[in-house]
Amino acid sequence: MRNLQFLLINLCYTLSFLFISTTTFAQLTSPMVINPLQTNLATLLPTPWVARHDLTSAQYQTEFNNLTAQGYRPKVVSGYAVNNQARYACIFEKPASTVPWIAYHGLTAADYQTKFNQHTAQGYRPVQVTGFALNNIPYFTVIFEKQTNPPQWVAHHGMTSADYQTKFTTYIGQGYRLIDVAGYTVNNIDYYVAIWDKSPSQQWVAHHGMTSADYQTKFNTYNSQGYRVQQVSGYTVNGQERYAAIWEKTGSGLFQARHSMSSGQYQDIFDNLYYQGYRPVWVNGYAVGTSAQFAALWESKSGFSATDMQNIDQAVQTYMAENNIPGLSFAITKNGKLVLAKGYGNADQSTSELVSPKDRFRIASVSKPITSVAIMKLIEQYPTKININSKVFGTGALLGTTYGNSTAYTDNLKNITVKHLLEHTQGAWDNDGDDGVGDPMFMNMSLTQAELISWTLNNQSFERAPGEDSQYSNFGYCLLGRIIEKVSGKTYEQYVQQNVLSPMGISQIEIGGNKLANRKPNEVVYYPTSDAYASYMNVERMDSHGGWIATPIDLVKFMVNVDGFTTVPDDISTTSFNTMITPWETGAGYAKGWGISGNNFGHNGAMSGTIAQLERRGDGYCFAVVVNTWPSSTDKYAGKMKQLLNNMINNVVAWPAYDLF
User: Fewest Cβ atoms nearer than 10 Å: which of 202, 257, 260, 498?
Assistant: First the structure.
């Protein structure tokens, strides 16, 4: 096939969101028509967009109605059939100005021809068409535009492979170029719908009937020659994938192309690319057997440079290889804006599920800053019930004499305050094991929290007086959770979600489960499973000191709401913030739920199945990073992982200006 010249038209855009509906319908709706839009939306540049996939005909109609009412228009619509049910994938844009347009879906061949004749007589032309078959009857989607001074064009549908090749050769010989092509199968015979026009162009090339391997080979070859794939259509012949595609020698900025993606893989890759600053510019759905597959293209014209992203990927992959990490996810904010989030490796090795930014991980002791903020919020809400110096145990104290027996209530116990628990200066129950007893939170795993607290008060003595020294205590933060419950009248999880996280716009942080069977939606698998889900991993009991699961995106969203910077208003008062990050003594490295290092503060987490790090830097960056194993012999407390993210931030040459929150 011959090469011609073409004209590149640059499009402005911004990032929006991806939504997938899971409701199913069987019926087809009638073709849709919308009157041409005349609205001038220039003030909304760059162009917002919305993408959907796996929509039934009814769902697509609903989304179409909702989005077009908001000023969006379809730019790409792909119809496909899965288990003899119609499905649609699409991309809508809200352009600054638009030509009149009309769109249909679910058209039979006869209906399509009728609409074609009707609208072309009115000055419209088709710009994008796809075909698919239900019960071996072909159906079509089409977008028409009424362009000013359009180039000469021709369009055909229902072409066999030989017909298509003949017309292709004929039209190219007459000075046309291929601008749209889609393959579809009826009775196991491949057919094609295509559009040619005489618009100017740079070099281009097109192929059809390619196997997946052929397409990959041609993609690599043309990519090395400076071509960029513009469209790709998947279909099957004799149960085997086939592809038709168009490449053009053009393009600036980063781009990504994927094919043979399942619905889940497409979603994971979509999420990962979205949080790297990419937007979808093409999507095509097709069926292989009884499953939907997708081919898609993305562009990034305002994000990271190729060099910066390559350096980031290389650094992460090196760290993962050196520490035998199955999956890793991170998120970075700059001056309150989410500028990058990405997942690597596997969320579930047994299914080869990829890590995406939507995946949740156990965050271990990164739970402690959440508890600290909750205590500060509690003090603000209930000033007559609790303050930083409130006593915890004894008659009239926050927890009274509910736990343990009378002999446990020594002067040291009754002198413990909320401040002591936040700072790990309570004088007992540390996890260093130097008292010969060890961390009570990893003992007596069958006991409830209340039973464990009573057992600990009765059986573990004080090593020092409260306030004398700081010795890390998971148990102390377990007590803080019970204080929150006593003062608020809610469970710890309810109070934090309703009073801390929800006001920040966070809804996906929750307490994790103990066993593999108790995984929450979008939660990764932890490795080795024999340790991560062992009987001593009572994650639910760890709630306020180590029980939360979260995405890195939600963790940095939490951080920017309590970071002390003015870019995003803090969710706690300035007084509470200053109290929270004041070290327990001058020059100490720990405050109240936060490790302190100069102008930086954060917290690490480590337990079987995970390590995590949440950090706020003094220069306006915040980051969160998690993995789904514990490399206890190589990076026991996430120090190397923390340095990985610090180096990553320091080495980026140019940051994007967008906000992906």
Answer: 498
Instruction: Kindly report, as residue ranges, where domains of CATH 3.40.710.10 are found in the chain.
Output: 308-367+494-499+509-651
Helix (H, G, I), strand (E, B) or coil at 221: helix
In the structure encoding, which two tokens stand for residue 284, read together?
């095509």
**In the structure encoding, which two tokens stand for residue 618, read together?**
């003094």
Residue 205 pairs in a beta bridge with 247
Buried b (16+ CB within 10 A) or exposed e, 206-245: bbbbbebeebeebbeebeeeebbbbbbbbbbeeeebbbbb
Contact criterion met (CB below 8 Å) for 90 and 281? no
CA dist., res. 227 & res. 113, Å (int): 34
What is the rounded distance in angstroms from the CA atom of residue 264 to the CA atom of residue 269?
A: 9
For 271-280, write each residue's pLDDT tens digit.
999 999 999 9
Query: Taking CA 628 as the corner, what is the angle to CA 627 and CA 629, rounded to the nearest 5 degrees?
Result: 100
Burial of 283 (0-12, 13-18, 19+ CB in 10 A): buried
Answer yes or no: are the C-beta atoms of 76 and 90 closer than 8 Å.
yes
Amino acid present at 451: E
Q: Which of the residue ranges 15-24, 146-155, 322-331, 378-387 would you say has the lowest mean pLDDT? A: 15-24
Which CATH class, in words, describes the domain spanning 308-367+494-499+509-651?
alpha beta
Task: Evaluate whether 289 touches 260 at the Cβ level (below 8 Å).
Answer: no
State the Cα–Cα distance between residues 472 and 431, nearest whole angstrom. 6
Q: Residue 196 pairs with which residues in a beta bridge? A: 154, 178
Left, alpha or beta for 378 (phi > 0: left; psi -120 to 50: alpha)? alpha
User: For residue 605, which of 423, 369, 379 has the smallest C-alpha distance?
Assistant: 369
The residue to which tokens 């994007």 are assigned: 656
- Chain mean position to CA 461: 46
Coil, strand, or helix at residue 226? coil
Which strands make up the sheet holding 240-248, listed edge to edge? 204-210, 240-248, 228-237
> What pTM, to 2 d.p., does this model score?
0.88
Given a contact cutoff of 8 angstroms between Cβ atoms, the answer to whether 431 and 415 are in contact is no
Q: Where do we find the tokens 């009573």?
A: 454
Task: State the Cα–Cα distance between residues 591 and 579, nearest whole angstrom.
Answer: 9
Whether the bond between 528 and the residue before it is cis, its omega within 30 degrees of 0, is: yes
Whether 626 and 552 have beta carbons less than 8 Å apart is answered as yes
CA 459 from chain centre, in angstroms, equals 46
Interior CA angle at 512 toward 509 and 516, to 5°?
Answer: 135
Compute φ and ψ for 133, nearest 5 degrees: -125, 140
ω into residue 46 within 30 of 0, thus cis?
A: yes
Residues 540-554 pLDDT 10s: 999 999 999 999 999
Q: How far apart are CA 458 and CA 450, in angstroms?
A: 12
- CB atoms under 10 Å from CB of 622, counted, come to 25
Residue 543 one-letter amino acid:
D
The C-alpha atoms of residue 340 and residue 333 are separated, in whole angstroms, by 7
